[in-house]
């Protein structure tokens, strides 16, 4: 018989009061089992008219303060966030049969945080941040390649490629976090954390 926690869920849910701690445990497990990009998640945003949009992005940092990803500030996702800061993200790790759904408000990271991460990117990725007008219409692929070459000539020193003002990070600060484990006959296990006004978390069980 599988070991259970105090709520009767599989032992992998633990008995943690802070969902960030449980996220860390599950994420570390995913890094061992997922072949490609265990930090990939679906990000859902809505524009001011309420029209939704979803895409895969990569998690670059997380803490009790939120989950951080980076992008062009003029991209579709960024423009959505500027109009409507409410967002939802979903991690799905098929190898573990686990899923995490998170909702919250999205805020721009500080320039210092963005600078620090930008410096860790490869030369090509830093050049790409300058060359690509993300989500805009291209006349041809050559237009993009030409732009890349222009910025390579402009920033020949690989150690001196400044971060563009139009490139930074976003931080989703959770107000709910739901942990899901696949179950036989679709009888899944679901544990949801709800953030209270005082900053603490309430745990509830959800029907599959």
Structure report:
With about 210 residues, the chain is an alpha+beta fold. The protein has one domain (about 10-120, about 165-205): Pnp Oxidase, Chain A, CATH 2.30.110.10. The chain is built from five helices and nine strands, in the order H-E-E-E-E-H-E-E-H-H-H-E-E-E. The protein has helices at about 20-35, 75-85, 110-120, 125-130, 140-155, and strands spanning about 40-45, 50-60, 60-65, 65-70, 85-95, 100-110, 165-180, 190-195, 200-205. Helix 4 (about 125-130) packs across helix 5 (about 140-155). The radius of gyration is 20 Å and the shape is elongated. The model has no long low-confidence stretch (mean pLDDT about 95).
Quick overview of this protein structure:
This protein has 208 residues and is of the alpha+beta class. It has helices at residues 19-33, 76-83, 111-118, 123-131, 141-154, and strands spanning 40-46, 52-58, 61-63, 66-72, 86-93, 98-108, 167-181, 189-195, 201-206. 26% of the residues lie in helices and 34% in strands.
């Amino acid at each position: 018989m599988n070991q259970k926690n105090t709520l009767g869920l599989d032992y992998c849910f633990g008995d943690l009061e802070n969902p960030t701690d449980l996220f860390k445990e599950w994420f570390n497990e995913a890094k061992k089992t997922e072949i490609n990009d265990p930090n990939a998640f679906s990000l859902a945003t809505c524009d001011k008219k309420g029209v939704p949009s979803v895409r895969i992005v990569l998690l670059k940092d997380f803490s009790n303060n939120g989950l951080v990803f980076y992008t062009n500030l003029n991209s579709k996702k960024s423009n959505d966030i500027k109009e409507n800061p409410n967002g939802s993200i979903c991690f799905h790790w098929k190898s573990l049969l686990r899923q995490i759904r998170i909702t919250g408000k999205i805020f721009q990271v500080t320039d210092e945080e963005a600078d620090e991460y930008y410096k860790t990117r490869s030369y090509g990725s830093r050049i790409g941040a300058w060359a690509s007008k993300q989500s805009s219409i291209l006349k041809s692929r050559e237009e993009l390649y030409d732009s890349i070459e222009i910025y390579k000539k402009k920033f020949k020193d690989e150690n001196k490629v400044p971060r563009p003002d139009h490139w930074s990070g976003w931080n989703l600060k959770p107000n709910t976090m739901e942990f899901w484990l696949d179950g036989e006959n679709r009888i899944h296990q679901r544990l949801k954390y709800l953030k209270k006004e005082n900053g603490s978390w309430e745990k509830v069980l959800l029907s599959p």
